[in-house]
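Cast an eye over this sequence plus tokens and explain the fold to me:
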Amino acid sequence: MPRRNRPDRGRPVPLGAATGWARSESGPDGDWLVRTVPGNQASKVYRCPGCDHEIHVGVAHVVAWPADETGSVADRRHWHQACWRARTRRRPTRRH
């Protein structure tokens, strides 16, 4: 049976065994590589740049970094899924 055509939702980009797969996303804020982290793989606490609240262990979230970068660990940011979707309506907060 032939495969069904599916809409392109971003092409998976291989990042190596340690980091998994990412999809590309384009928006008014530029091109991004984005990886979804399921709750059962979220084993550390991160601070979301969108709301400045913690992303607790076990909470599903996304990791995003600029697509024009080489994928450096220093460029990656962990976001709550809702904060990532709202990033164009609400600018990231800065901790002082």
Summary: The CA atoms of residues 6 and 12 lie 14 Å apart. The first helix runs from residue 81 to 85. Residues 19-85 form one domain. DSSP finds one helix and seven strands in the chain.
